[in-house]
User: Fold this.
Amino acid sequence: IERKRPPFNVFGDSAGDVTRNLRFAGGLSSRRTTAGLADDVLATYGDGSACLLLTSFGSSTLAVLNADLGASNLPKTGPFVPLLEEVVQELLNRGDSGEGAVCGEPLVRRLPAEVTTAAGLKIHGPGNDSGAAKPAADKSIDKSIPSSDVALGKGNQYGKLVDEGAAVVWQWPQPEKPGAYSVDRNGQTVFAATVSIPAEESQLDTLSPDVLTKRLGGGRSVGYTSASGPEESRDLAWTWLLVGCVMTMVVEIGALVGFRT
Assistant:
């Protein structure tokens, strides 16, 4: 399973434990074709057949679970509802023209059907900065990188563009910066996507002191420091006492040296 991608990322680090107890029956044997996209297959069986497939077809999106639900234990287990909910949500997200993604999660996008090759494509990030490699004709390019890898965008800080069959796929394992990104050819934008910060990390509402001391404290002794309050006073008495002790020792040593005769 692809643990870091929907629908399995909803289970976090326990995805393997959750799916280990699932039993499937009635699935059809399948094989990957040259026109197929590896990123469309989200789960496979031990013989290599596809278990869960999510793919785009024209302007639509299709999800296929290769199993007989009547003969499988999936509908009777707890993961069935969250798995189904995540698959439906992924179908809706892929059908969204905004093609949104979130920071820290893999971005995999199939470029429009009219884009048939990754050669000549460049990925631009926020502020019109280009993360793509320079053309092979540029002498400043690293000679250790094959020209074919440059065409596919290998080493790109915004991921890479990969030819898979008759389609081009943009793969970015971990977007780091929110903003608008575009894929251009000869200055013309052929595809665009946005990356945003996850909603749970954007919740910046503050808690009132009563919530901490009464409701969450539960009778315990709880202290807090208000960011809007005055700065904490510092007790400097011990500091000056230590300085006085050091000065006294210096005077004493000086007196012993001066009156030793």
Notes: The two ends are 88 Å apart (CA to CA). Helices lie at 15-20, 80-95, 147-151, 209-215, 237-258. The chain has five helices and ten strands. Strands lie at 41-44, 50-57, 60-65, 100-102, 107-110, 121-124, 160-164, 167-172, 179-185, 188-196.
